[in-house]
Amino acid sequence: MSTHSDLASLTGWAAEARYPSEMPEATNADASEAVEQARSVWTAVSTALAEHGFPVEQDR
Fold it and tell me: Which pTM value belongs to this model?
């Protein structure tokens, strides 16, 4: 199973989207990093599920 860097920043962005605060606006770099991390997690989880016989839609 692959490991991922600290994913706390994804949690922070999710919380900010739901509970807006005085957090600075996301930059393009912030958004790109968050998307890259989320895709990496998606790939790892969907691969692990498929390896255990659970069909996973890959078109995301």
Answer: 0.68
The closest of 1, 46, 44 to 57, measured between CA atoms, is 46
Q: Is the dihedral of CA 51, 52, 55, 56 positive or negative?
A: negative
Please name the residue that has the structure tokens 């606006």.
25
**Amino acid (one-letter) located at 36:** E
Predicted confidence pLDDT, tens digits, the chain (60 residues)? 556 667 888 888 888 888 888 878 889 999 999 899 889 989 999 999 999 999 887 665
Of 60, 5, 1, 14, nearest to 37 by C-alpha is 5
State the Cα–Cα distance between residues 29 and 47, nearest whole angstrom.
27
